[in-house]
Structure formats: structure tokens, C-alpha cells
Amino acid sequence: MLLLALPPLGFSTPPTPRRLPSGSLIAGYATSCDSDGAPHLVEQAVAGVNVVIWFATSLQKNATSGRPQVTHHLNHTCVAVVAQELRRRGLITAHMISIGGWDAPHPDTSFSGEEWFEAWDEWNRGEVAQPALGFPGYDGIDWDLEGNDTPSSPWNRFTPACIELVGTMSQAAKRAGYLVSLVPPQSYADVGVAGFDLSLRHSYPEWQPDFQYLGTPPGVKDSHFFLRRARLHRRRQVESTSCARRAAGTPRSCKPFAKACMTPPSTGRPAASLRPRSAA
After folding, report:
1. What residue segments make up the domains of the chain, in order of their start?
2. What is the pTM (predicted TM-score) of this model?
């Protein structure tokens, strides 16, 4: 009798370890993908963006089945077509998917990080992947958990369970060969600092004091130090050219491959600029 080990239905074969492009890295958020926007996405990749963070997903319990569900609004076929075009041009590019966003719910903590990764991996390899277009699904996840316009919203504060979920899901993803990126405000990411807490409603007195969603502990003298630390944390994997942060009292504005980094007002310079790149 010949026994064959087959992957579960709906899955591709287990993914090989995902890799970032070599050399300098510039990441940009892509908020949508359609026939009108896809050419612009390709243009920005040609201009230098080599890590595309597609926006966005949420991790929520399905109201009918009670099972973990990855919710999203992206056209995965369009994403696969863009990835195929970049490969055709010889532009090596990593494709990440973000979790969260402004006003988005934080992950449902009734499931563990390992359970969420299993659900995400099934979704990525079974629903997102487009084998006919040579797209194996996203190369990893970018944590983008943020606050909410409503001050009383529970999403303006992290729970220990949520922090634990982020950590254990990230570990599971890394073990499976995926990439993981994160830019955490220091207040909830570093228990070793005196100002550690889980609120997302702190402000910088010297920088738009009415904007109370920066996640850094109050009383910090050098607030830009925390901005730099946050950027450097991600640059271990990606050098971020992130979306413009939400202005006080207005919705967060985010365009595909926004070029502006949040930088100290004293410099007025982005941390990374776009430069055309040649095919590999």
C-alpha cells in the first residue's frame, strides 16, 4: 500500500521561508487594489518601494460559526496581478498584509495567538493565494493596532491578553517562515520603562498636545526619542515610509505608498526617500 501525505483541502503546499529584498528597504501602505489604482502601485514600486504593506485585515470571531475569521476588503486577484507584474519587471518585492488600522477593532482574544495564526495561514494559503498567477499569498503580517475616534472606545486601550496574542501569533508566524513587522509605541511594548501602561490616549505636550493617541507615556522629555525608537524597531525588517498619521480631530488620511515619514519637526526630513530601482 502506498501512503501519500497530502495537504488539507484548500491549502497549497507549506510555504517556503519568505524573504525580504536585499539591500535598502522602503515600505509603503497600499490601501486598495483595483484596475484604476494598480498602475500607480506599480509606478511606486518602480520608484523604489520594495515592501508593500497591503491594508488591512481584522481578526474577529465569526458571528455564525463562532470560529476565528480574517475580515478584509482587498481584491486578492488584483494584488496577485500587481505582484506578477513586479516579478515580470524583475522588481523583487515583499508583500505583507496589515492587521488593524485606525478605528478598527483589536483582535478577538477568545482565541489564542496560535489559533489565530492557524486561521490566518489557512486564509492566506487557501483564499488569498493565486497559483495561476504565481502568487503564494502574503509574505507576512504587519501589526498596525491603533486607537479609535471615540474616547470611550475599548480600542483605545490594550489588554494584556491582546499583547499576549500579538506576541504568540507573531512567534507562530515566524516559525512557519513568515515575516512579521511592528512599530509599537514604547508605552505598551516595553515593560522595562517606568512609564509603561496600555493606554493609546497619551499626547506629546510639545507636539500637538490635543492629539491624544500617540501611545507614549506622559512626562517624557524627549518624545522624538520614542518616535525614532519605534521607527528603528521596524527597520530591523523594513525601513518605513508610512502613511501620514491622523491629524487631531480628523480621520486618518492614508494614500497608497505615502512618502512622508513621521519625523521630528526639528529636521523636517523623511527618514527614507523613494529612489528608482533597477530590475534584479
Report:
1. 27-235
2. 0.73
